[in-house]
Each structure stands twice: as structure tokens, then as C-alpha cells.
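Case study B.
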Amino acid sequence: MKKNNTTYWQDVENKVLDPEHLKSEFGEGELQFDIGSIKKDRRSFLKVMGFSFTAIPLASCMRIPVKKAIPYLYKSDQVTPGVANWYATSMDPMKGSSLLVKTREGRPIKIEGNSLSPITKGGTFGTDQASVLSLYNSSRFKGPLLDGKPIEWANIDKKLEAALNNANDKEKKIVLVTRTISSPSTLDIIAQLKEKYSNFDHVVFEPTSQSAILRANEECFSNAVYPTISLDRADLIVSFSADFLGTWLSPVEYTKQYTSRRDLTIHNTLSKHYQFESLMTLTGSNADQRFSVTPEEEKSFIINLLAEIQRKAGRSLLPPGQQLPGTNRELVSQIAGELWEKKGKSVILSGSQNKDIQIMVNALNSLLDNYGETIDLYENPYFKGPKDQETEDLISTMEAGEIGAVLFWDTNLAYHYRDTQRFTKALKKVVTRCSFASADDETSVLCNYVLPMNHFLESWDDYFQAPNVLTYSQPVIQPLFGSRMAQETLLKLAGSTTKYYDFLKKNAEIKFFKMQTKKMLFHEFWNHTVHDGLSLMNSSLSKKSDLAKNVVALSYARLVKATLNKGMTLIGYQKVGMRAGDMINNPWLQELPDPITKATWDNYFLISPIDAKKQNLKTGQVIKVATDKVTLVLPIIVQPGVRENMIGVAYGYGRSVAGKVAKNLGGNAFPFVQFSNGSFNNIATDVKVDITPEKREMALTQTHHSMEGRDIVRETTLKEWKVDNHAGNKPSIKLVSMWGKHDQSGEQWGMAIDLNKCTGCSGCIISCNAENNVPVVGKKEVHSRREMHWLRIDRYYKGDEENPEVVHQPIMCQHCDNAPCETVCPVIATVQSSDGLNQQVYNRCVGTRYCANNCPYKVRRFNWFDYAHDDKYENMVLNPDIVVRSRGVMEKCSMCIQRIQESKLVAKKEERPLKDGDIQLACQQSCPGDAIVFGNLNDPKSKISTLLKNARKYRLLEELNIQPRVNYLTKVRNKG
Amino acid sequence: MKNKLIFLICLVIVIGVSVAFTYEARMVNFNVDYEPQQPINFSHKIHAGENQIQCLYCHFGAEQGRHAGIPPTELCLNCHNQIRKDSPEIKKIKDAVAGGAKIEWQKVHHFPDFAYFNHSQHVRVGKISCQECHGPVETMTRLKQENALNMGWCLDCHRQNNIAAPDDHKSRAGGDCARCHY
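Model:
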């Protein structure tokens, strides 16, 4: 292990520790406050002191202010003040998971995963967790607008209907533009609209479209659906640029499946994961072996792999006698061999937006008999995905003046479409422009009808989360800002008088009640389904996965002719927290460090270390990237693992019309989207790069948590682990302590984090923020290293810069038995509890920050300011069981003490002992990888006790003999 | 030298007076005997004392969760639809319920927000009678604060650690900071 100490590094510039950099963290200039008009001389000091002395006795003459208490007039028997209610609901499956929502006195305050869901199994991502804050976004519309002026709902309904009828009468087209629709009832309403208006069109637009998969599946199998993937059944995963653990299709589901095969406490082997990609994605950072390739190299590799596999299968899908493009033949035959060995137990994925690549991948999966094993293609009548050609056609028909009315539902084409100017010009030719948006965006300002739509926590909806899983979204709060479900409007336009809720329920009764057998009566079925948030349909699903002939040969012919990258190539990607930018106005997500770059509040160009060295560029240097049509100026981050000549840029930023959080943040990368081969493509080839003299400070959380080269992360390979379970680990050392031992009877809490199951998705950070009222500090303060996250994920690189191995390690307060922070606190504001937690008592803390200085893990956070709590809507998200800390107070992870106390109380009320698993910490509950385990160390049967006997267990900086309560299990890579 | 001496004496006096006042201030702010005028002349003496209505009939929250709570206004009418229908005080309640007006009670027992207190923990698990903290409410015509409700007062009980708990369950009241402060 000693060798490893010297090979881990955090980022390119900090590969050699820079003493100057350390100085800046504690430098004098950084810590100074502007104390306003008070001069720092003797007279001013005496004035202030004199005032304080007189003020104290004056203050003592006052009684505490009178407090009013206003009881309910009528109380619902379900709401008891101080007691939380939980409701099951669901996000749109393209955006999130099955969820449970915690409400207090009628306001949702926390989101957790619904463990009943067979798809996400209780896991959530940061985006799911943070969606509750978006509900309280005070920049949401306060009511409908007609030509920018407020209007009553009833009036705008009448006017909109008249406008549509008018367009219909003039035989002009009416077009509804939506995102992917997985809601059967919504599809029904759209069908009704099609019936009513003779010239009605429905266009599905996805800003970060994965439509190539749908088109490929349509051509190969006549079945335009997304595949249902079972990574838990795959022994071998080969992924080509598919960021399935971060942003691709259904990442929470895949993370659950993936990590279930990375668990060496249950299994004694691991699945194997190869990743080929041009940028460094979260998925790539978790791969057993990662290959840094250009899209062109990726293409050649796939073609060669297919040739090799078809040879093994004795089939000929590719036209014979062709010269195959050059590639690493040895690697091809090695991986082809492994794939052939794992026939039916492997899966090949591709994130490419080139339909032909997807067809090649389909052929590979088909030859390997993976269909029906690890991939299923169920027919799904309740799904309408994007067809990018439709969007292009929409713009040209708008330009031709053939469209009389266009309705944008949750689609912001003026920002997301690749040519804003063309879109804006085209839209001007449409008379009736209607936007269903939640807050002002680039498109809604161009529309004359604005009909604010509800947040999903205010809405009813039904979804097929998978072809056999029906989930329901139910409102947990009345609409806060006078908005309305878009479906209500569409129903009215379709000439129906029913409410959407009744419509949805009727649909369930007519269609879906029959598709299950568990419940005999409809009302029973309905109540259970809404209560659980979902229902499993057990009618048999039809699959369609027979590869059509000739498709592969045709697409091969297209593919060999195409050049996927040339010169410098710009690749658009999605940040794990931001995705396509739907929640760009969410401060929690803005402040979430990107799992790889650890950057917050910004987007930037990712440049390979080789290119950076060539041009002598450093992180923060501003560069200009241009095609012949568009330019974008942003700072760079030198990102290890990025392929030479490739530049990455995240979507979602650079909004011109948005709330106060997102406005003028970063730059818009959507104009670089190309339309080729029927799909929106995220790769722009041959871009021009100019270096500007400007340098910009990036709000990175990366370098100032440096672990100074100690063996903080321990890892080994599966081969070595199989020989010796202790591989990569060091036996714990017995050290003599000057301290007496604490009384360790009763419950003693401890935690274990399996580094093999943590993917670094960062969902736990948002969950912790929401649970513990952790403040958002803003870009400037993050840059001053004052972010307040109680839980951070450290990311280390190992090996060469061009293609390093990556590890993610969650770090929170380690709750040491011999805590160094406790001994230095002059006011005893941090002490050990009888159940082994390190307690921070805010009202005793005077803010000396000695504890933070003495903490070897640097997990304590100091409130430099009273962070903004002036938005009365956003304050509604605060957890009322937790204090909002004020300026001058130290804080840190409390092991969700409020949850421990609550679970204990529940057990006591039920007059039973606490069971293992009763207490679920916020980070633990939300973890889609089940990497975090918490429990009672004194209970020999608890999960934590068994984990601590594992040979992979170790504790951080054990040599300090501070006896931390948080344990880690070594990372094991399946290689070598 | 003389000046310095005078300055020092003055300083000592100022600090001494301030400390004395501050100490006194603490005592005042505990608000013992606080007995504010309420919007409705409600008498605990009549309800809980003479008529023997259980505390938990109205303050049912005390058994369920954190807040004991002031009962929802309509609850008064469970009885007062029949009893003393025409009293002017009852009329205030009826009007409020009929007209949707809110009744603003003056909070008597004020608990600071840096401490967490859960009624059900004490009432249902600890099996402590209401009177132990709130005093003989059933004799009070107008409610007043009986005890200091400060930390020292809480700890008087918590230190004794004799709160009833299920036998097989070791966790007791305890004096850990984070039992209340989080």
C-alpha cells in the first residue's frame, strides 16, 4: 500500500502539492470581514464597549415578546401539528423516480425513494431530492398571463379556445410540443385533441435526446421503445459513451442494479465493466477498465467487435469482403472473447446519438443472445418518445406560415433548440403562441398565452414507469402560486368538462384495473395504488426483439463513410446534477459539486491534460470555441481522462431568461447541437479554439480537501482479493491511549461505507442538505472555500493523466471516540454522547473554530454569515425539527440525530426494542447504491456488526488513535 | 496613577452592575407567573377542575407528537353546541367557526427553538402527568406559567434518570446534549 501513497493525486495542477495553494486557504486576506463604519482605534472601541455595557441592563428590563398561537378552526384528522405525513408519488419517469414525500403541516419538506418500486427500489438521485426546493421557487408564475398581463383562468380558457377554433377554421395547423410522454391518460387527452381539431399535431422534443436508440430499435425490431436493461443479470457490461450511472435513460435504476453486483459482502465475485468514452463521465470513473477514445475510434472498435462476434456466431450481418477500419485488434479479440464466453449474460450499451452506431450495438446484443436475458424490448403503447425530425419539420412549417397555433408544454425551444434565432423568427409567424411553463423562460416570453403549470408535487398524473409498472403522481400540497395542471387546459380544449383527476381515475377503472389480479374491487385497487404510489400489472408483456434483415449492412455502409470527429471536437454532455437544465433555478443543485470536476455554479470546457500542456493552459483560463455559426466563451477545466483533441461542455447553462439563481450563469452549449442522420447529435466536429487573455476563478471544491497523500482510499483487484480478503488493506493497529475508555454500554452507533458500491452520484449530499437545513452559500463563498455541505465526496485520481483510475469517497463527521475537536473546544460545545456520537451544541458554540482546525478530516463547517433565509417561500422547505444555525456557529454531520431520536421514540411508543434498520439516515436512505450502512455496534446481529468483521474494513487515519465510528470497506476493481 | 485607579474602580462597578442586571434579567425572562389576558375568557378551573374533562381530550396532540397544541376551535363546539350556548364567550367561538376567523391566543409556555421538546415522549413514554410541568392547571382560572422551563429545570428530572421505559430497552431520559439540542 505504501506505493499507493505516492500515486494518488487530486487534480492536474495539484499533482505536486503546492505550498502556495495551502497558504491561500488560511491566508489573512481571505478571512477578513468588512465591519462597516466602525474604525479600529481606541476611541471607537470604548464607544462600542460603553454602548454594549449600557445595552445589557436595558435589555434585562424587557419581557420576551408576546407570542401568538393560532389553532386550526377545523382540523383534518390526518394532520397533527408536529407529526409528519408521508405520501407516495412519482416523478415523470424520464426525469426521476418513484418517491415518498414527507410533509409537515401540509408542506412537503423532504423526498425519499419509494422502496416498493421494483424499478428504483428506494433509490433517488440528487435531482429527485432537490425537486422539492423547486416547488417553492418564488420566481414561478403567479397566475396566467395574456400578452404579459395577468388574466383570470376562465377568461384565458375562453380566449385560447377561440384562438384554436379560429386556427382550425382557417385550416391552419395546431401543434402541441411536449417532452417524452409516459402518461397513458395524457396520451388519451392528446388523442381526443386530434379528434377535435382536424389539423392537430403532437411533437415530442427532448433537449438531450436519446432518440437514436428509438430509431434504431424501430428499424431493427419495429419497436420504437427504450430497452429495459437488467444490469443485475449482466456479468459483463461494455458501454460506449453511455453514462448509465449518471445521466443516461434511467440512472437510478441502473445504479441499483449495477451496485447489486458490486457487493463483495454477499457475492464472491463482481460483474465486469468496460467503458469507452471521450470525456470522463461518472460511469467511466466507476469502470473496471476505462478506455479514452474519440467517437471515431469508438466507431471503428464497435465495427471490428461486431465483425469478430459474427465470425464466432457463424453469421454474416456485415457485407463480406470489406476492409474494416483500423483499431486495436488485440483488445477487440480480447473483449470479443470475453463477450462470447458471457453470451446471454452480457450487455452492450451505447450513448451515441448516431442511429447507425445504435444499430451496430443492437446487432451485437442480438448476436450475443442478450435480448430476453439482460435486455428486454417490451411493446409499450403508453409511450411517446422523441423523433428529432419532427422538431425540424415543425420549425420549417412554422417558417412556411402553415401553423396557426402552437402550444409548448414544458418545452423551452427558444433555449433548447439548436438555432434560437431561426426558432424565434419562425415563431413570430404563428398567431397563437401558448406556453405551459412554471416560470419565465426564453420561450414563454415569446408567447402571448402563458398558462402556468403545476409542480409535480401539486399534480395528479399516471405513468408507466416500466411497461408493467403503473405509478401515480398525487398532489401533496395545493398549488402555491395559482397554477394549474396543463392537462386541465388540454381537457377543456378537447371539449371535455371532466377534471383531470376524474379522467385519470376513470382510465384506471376502465383500462388498468383489468390488468391486475390482486384486488377484486376497483376502489380497493385505486386506494392501494395511490397509497403505494404504484401498482404492478401482471398482464403478460409482449416482446419484440427479432433483428430485421439487411438493416445492419445498410447502416454499416453509412457508418464507414461517415466521419464522426475531425480536428478539435466539442462534445456536449449533461452534468449529473443539472441534466438538461430543467432545474437550473435550484440552488441546491447549483451548489452540488460535479462528481468528477467538483465544480459548482458553472459550466466550462473540459480539456485534456495533453491539449492543456500543448497550449500551456491552466484551469480557469478562458477560451473561445467556435464553429462557423456559433461561438462560446467559457473558462476551462483541465480534466484527466479526456481524450486528446476532445472538448467537453455541459448543457443547461447560459440562460438569458430565468430566475435569479440561474440567470447569466455559464454559457449555452445547445447551439452546438448538430442535426444529422435524423437525430440531434451532441458532437460538433472541427471547432476552432482561441485562447483569450482572460482568467476566471472557478468555484471548485476540489483542491482544498486534499488528504495530503495518506492512504485514505485503499483498493485492490478482484484477483488479489480472491487470494487474500485483506488485500489492499492493512490490519488495524492496537495503539495505547492516554484517554480512559468511554462507557460503551447500550446503543452505540456506527457506520460503514462500502467504497465498492459508492458510485459518487452525490445524491446523498442533496439528501443531507434537505434533511439538515444546510444553507446554500453561493458561488463566491464556495470559491472562498466556505461551502456548508456536511457530507462531501472526495474524488481521487490514480495512474496516468490521460486515463486515470478514479475513486469516490464520501466523507462526513467520523464521530471519533477520542475526538480531537472535543479536547480543544474552550466552551465544551462539542462533546461525546453516551451512544457514541460527537455532538455539536450550536447554542453553546462561540465560534472559535479551534475544533475545525483540529479535525483531521476537515468535516466541520463554520457559518461565516447568516445565510439568506429571506425568501418566505423557500423557507417552507426547512425541516422544523432542526435548528437553522446562525452566523458564528460551527456545524457538522450529526448522524441525523433527529432521525435517531424519532425512531427511538416510535419504538418506545410501541413498547418494543429498537430493531436493526429502524433508523435510516438521510444519506443512507437516498443512496441508490446502498453503500451506506448504519446501526448499533453493540447488537451482534445488526448489519453493521457483520460488516465490521469484514476483512475489507478500515478506518481513516487509524494511526491517530482517534477511534472514528465511520468505517470504510476497500474498493475492489475487477481487473488483472 | 490616580486616574488609572479611578478608571479601574469605575470599570469594576460597571461590570459588576451589568453582571447583576444580566443575572436578574435571566430570572425575569424565565417568565414564571406569566399570565396573559386571552381573547376568550376560558377557565381551566371550570373545564379540567370542576367538570373533570381529561387534559388529553382537548390537548390530544400531547399524546401523538411534538406539540400538545391548542385544540381546533370546532372542538369546543362538541360540547358547546349543547351547553351554555348563549354565553357571550361561546358566541365568539361560534362566530369564529362560522365566519372562518382566527382566534389569536397568547402563548403562555414559550419554548426556545434551539431546543427540541416532544410532548408525546414525556406523556406517553415517560408517563409524566401534565401537572408535573404545567402546575395545577385544574385550579387556574386563567392559565399561568408555573415552572421556569429552563435547561436547569429540565435537567433536574433528566439527571435522576428514573423515567419509565420498556424493560428490554436500555435507552433512558439521559443527559446528552443532543437529546434536545439539534
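Strands of chain B lie at 105-106. The remaining cases will be described in the next quarterly update.
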